[in-house]
Design brief:
Helices cover 49% and strands 16% of the residues. The chain is of the alpha/beta class and 177 residues long. The protein folds into two domains: 46 residues; 116 residues, Rossmann fold. The strands form two sheets. A four-stranded parallel β-sheet has the order 4-3-5-6, with helices on both faces. It has a two-stranded parallel sheet with strand order 1-2. The model has no long low-confidence stretch (mean pLDDT 93).
Length: 177
């Protein structure tokens, strides 16, 4: 890291990426205090997309239109790591044509967790099945989240089931017109 001028904010489309930079990146440099300090500075200006739009810019209505029933899955890193509860929902509520449907047991993990899904495949698969049951029971046409890893896991499970429900990232919905 250098002392060159940097962007005021770094915006990631994923809670897990923002959590990594904010919480874990500085720890990688424990034995190098100047780099650890620079990483901490970077972490303080790193945001997940919905967090940046709502908390920093104060925006919820981006002029989007998305005609579908949508269930929101709050990913673990966004929810627990960054404390994102209302930000993604506020953005979704402002999308024209979108019908936000309740997701039963919304705050339960989808079972991905990166290496967890590989190391504990049977547990991960059971968690995914439970989440997919909830998504399908919600009546949603689309399930959305702020983490690509969760969406990949959900999309794969939905495809293997032959489900009509699609997994779509929140950013795609916000960009729709």
């Amino acid at each position: 890291m250098t002392s060159r001028s940097c962007a005021e904010a770094v915006v990631a489309p994923s809670g897990s990426c923002a959590t990594m930079v904010r919480e874990w990146y500085p720890r990688l440099f424990r034995d190098d205090p100047p780099r650890a300090a620079a990483a901490a500075v970077l972490g303080r200006r790193t945001y997940e997309l919905s967090e940046f739009l709502v908390r920093v810019l104060g925006r919820t209505d981006l002029g989007a239109r998305f005609d579908a029933a949508v269930a929101y899955h709050p990913s673990c890193h966004g929810l627990r790591g960054l404390g994102l509860r209302d930000e993604p929902l506020s953005l979704l509520r402002a999308v024209r044509g979108l019908r936000l449907v309740d997701l039963p047991r919304a705050e339960e993990c989808c079972g991905f967790g990166g290496f967890f899904a590989v190391t504990f495949a049977p547990v991960s698969g059971a968690m995914l099945a439970s989440k997919l049951d909830a998504v399908e029971a919600s009546g949603a046409d689309v399930v959305t989240a702020t983490d690509a890893s969760c969406l990949m896991h959900l999309a794969g499970g939905l495809a293997r089931r032959g489900s009509r429900v699609r997994a779509v990232h929140l950013a795609e919905i916000l960009a729709a017109s």
